[in-house]
């Protein structure tokens, strides 16, 4: 990692750009809209909770939720009331016409009622035939997952999204990945089940701290055990894949819009990396419609370089993808490195990344962004990147399941972005889009946890809000554009498991703050007296599992100091969930929903360049 310690000038960042909210797909969201939506949600939820607890209604719904059949046991939260309250309030405050919002709410509510009715009828049938019933806890889990799924896919269908592109898929052997995934899953189930059956002192203490709430330790141990094994396999792959003395010429393209505050440090860091690398390095600063001194400072810094050579190319059309595509057209080397203008590459980054490409099966290489430190969100961001990029992304490499590598620092074979039509313009997530599509061409994506670089972290609330709304919206843009992965007959891990999971997880995250409010109201007003573990369960979900994974990730990545940021990280996760909600509210909802799979089935291809969303 770079030992450069430039002055922190993040207060000078001009962070609003045309990429903040692509005008065809997103609308402005005032900072008062989400609070108004949450207040409306609380009113609807309290009314429904009160109604279902009245003597006249409770005799028909003794479980204190909108459940139509008898279930055994109890639940922690009235999940169905929560989901319906969220659907209605979210649709009311979403971006779009009155008709579009009304039809969106109607579609979500009708779909959810339909699938829950089917679930209850199945329970009645099983009860009649086998004299048994599902547990209410199981019903609540399924009802919650169905709610997340319906919300995410209905927003994808009714939101204004990028058009479908024909996605080229080149089949490769997945035998090794399947064997690894099956074996690690079985081992994780055995280990978590075994430990879950033990009467451990630490488990009792964790329950007292509500880290486990009313949930068994096996549930919390499954994912860390599964991904811990995959992480170990990926580290083994990284160790075996390294080849020495592969130093081909490379071009580094740097899209830069009003980056005068840091561009000199960025170029100095790349020059130092070029010296360590020893190969030929060309730096292309893509001056993207800057109104400050970016061009002049960049020219002076490039002239002072001792190991790299470079030039500034003016790109008057605003938009990061426009700058990237101009850089792609100017690249004359076999390999292309994309670096954000606010990234300080590590001295060894090129030396670590390029040897992977001696394997012709490798198509993309990335690493782990490390925050510079010293600002409001930097400590929390450190744990976030360790968990996401240093643990989960690395682990997914073991089964060739990496979806995207962030564009802060990423290396490609130049021919691949050119073959795929360049970087997509007019939507969020162009870095994930290109990595995903290279992966579907049959090439492997590598995330090296030792390849670390310093990447800017927003230092203010408005900047963090802008960044996260842009990031969280991207999963919908990518899923719509690359929908063939989900709906085609190609049974890929990315298309059939990871991408749908990312969509559903975005729905879960958007509902986290409302869930905290809902559980608090249900507990405070005594709406669910038969379930004394409401608040413990909510704390367990929001604190317990993330804390365990964060601690494991910090130690595996050799950064135990990250554990000291755990309280800030857990609070930041809630803030991140709130930004997710705001991001989803920005998506423009149409009155005409699209049946997404029809575009694939009918092979509908837009009459415009592939790089235009």
Structure description:
The chain has 613 residues and is of the alpha/beta class. Helices cover 54% and strands 10% of the residues. The chain contains 22 helices and ten strands. The strands form two sheets. The protein has an eight-stranded mixed β-sheet with strand order 4-3-2-5-8-7-9-6, with helices on both faces. The protein has a two-stranded parallel ribbon with strand order 1-10. Helix 10 links the parallel strand 3 (281-288) and strand 4. Helix 3 (79-93) packs parallel to helix 5, helix 6 (175-196) packs antiparallel against helix 8 and helix 19 (512-524) runs antiparallel to helix 20. The longest helix has 33 residues, at 98-130. It is globular and about 80 Å long. The two termini are 35 Å apart.
In short:
The protein has 613 residues and is α/β, with parallel strands linked by helices. The protein is built from 22 helices and 10 strands.
Structural category is alpha/beta
| Alpha carbon gyration radius | 25 Å
Largest sheet: number of strands, sense, barrel closure: 8 strands, mixed
Number of helices: 22
Strand content: 5-15%
Shape: globular
Distance between the termini: 35 Å
Attribute tags:
54% helix, single chain, 613 residues, 22 helices, alpha/beta, 8-stranded mixed beta sheet, 10 strands
Write the layout of secondary structure elements.
Blueprint: H1 33-52, H2 55-58, H3 79-93, E1 95-96, H4 98-130, H5 136-158, H6 175-196, H7 201-208, H8 217-241, E2 250-256, H9 263-277, E3 281-288, H10 294-303, E4 309-315, H11 320-330, E5 335-339, E6 343-344, H12 349-353, E7 362-370, H13 378-396, E8 409-413, H14 415-419, H15 430-440, E9 444-455, H16 461-481, H17 484-487, H18 493-510, H19 512-524, H20 534-556, H21 566-586, E10 588-589, H22 596-601
Parallel strand pairs: 1-10, 2-3, 2-5, 3-4, 7-9
Antiparallel strand pairs: 5-8, 6-9, 7-8
